[in-house]
Amino acid sequence: MNHVVFLLVPGLHLLDLAGPAQAFSTASGLGHPYTLGYVAEQEQVPTAQGVPLLAGLAWPQLGPDDLIVVPGWRTAALADSPVLGAGSLRALRDHHARGGTVASVCAGAEALGRAGLLDGRRCTTHHDVQHELARRYPRATVVRDVLYTADDRVVTSAGIASGIDLALHLIATRHGPAVAAQVARDMVVYARRNGHEPQASAMLRYRSHLDDIVHRAQDLLDTRFDRPWPLPALAAAVGVSERTLTRLFTRATGGLTPLRYQQTLRLERAEHLISHGTTVDSAARAVGFQDARMLRRLRARTGGPDADGA
């Protein structure tokens, strides 16, 4: 996703646009370059909040690694949504057909539906229009009570601020959860759970706090969880005493010490490796345990299987 192009529709909600745009811009500032573009069927696009926006009329050249996002707009009913021309709908279809990813925020799912991209796929939208979306596109599976869905490079999110969650998901998929956690931290947003689905990573699950010292410690542990991190070294790296770091860390993460947090990261990665065919012994070495006994104890403690290949 080197290019992220936003298709702007008259009456769009500013936060539907600004949230994902800020997330990708922040990721770019962290060393993962993105080029953001804005395309519309008219040069000046009115917004629901009254701020007019300027956009280009020509689509840039896009490849399979690029992303098109359709922010949502203010509407009482999807049937009354602004008209999208054949060229815009064709651009959405063609980009997906070439292997690219398309995404929507809020009512923007209507544009994907009109382009035929929701048929046979899971999707979601703002709770006020979920029933209508299901009626208008009966071949789609509209999922309720989730922040976003992803199905065959068609990614949809619920209302307004959930566009940030969608963007963080895409960044985590592309660059890993540690980068997504850094973006969420820089934006001072909570990394929220996605409805009934489990949180993707402990790197995001324990970031719902505003303690900068703890975030800095987590940044170090996230990027080097497979290496030794003695508490004195970690405390010195973030500029506080061992006792202060432990106290702040435990409070911010809901009871985890830095060591337990590191073990959680190691266990999570080990479970991923084991699920893809790695033995317990090999997984233990890969995540930084000197032998497999500690990994087996942690897996047993959390209710996980205790045998190779299980």
Automatic annotation (TrEMBL):
SMART domains: HTH_ARAC (SM00342). Keywords: Signal, Transcription, Transcription regulation. PROSITE patterns: HTH_ARAC_FAMILY_2 (PS01124). Residues 215-304 form the HTH araC/xylS-type domain. InterPro entries: Class_I_gatase-like (IPR029062), DJ-1/PfpI (IPR002818), Homeodomain-like_sf (IPR009057), HTH_AraC (IPR018060), INH-QAR (IPR052158). It holds the Pfam family DJ-1_PfpI. The keyword ATP-binding does not apply. It comes from the Bacteria. Residues 1-23 form the signal peptide. PANTHER family: ARAC-FAMILY TRANSCRIPTIONAL REGULATOR (PTHR43130), HTH-TYPE TRANSCRIPTIONAL REGULATOR RV1931C (PTHR43130:SF3). This is DJ-1/PfpI family protein.
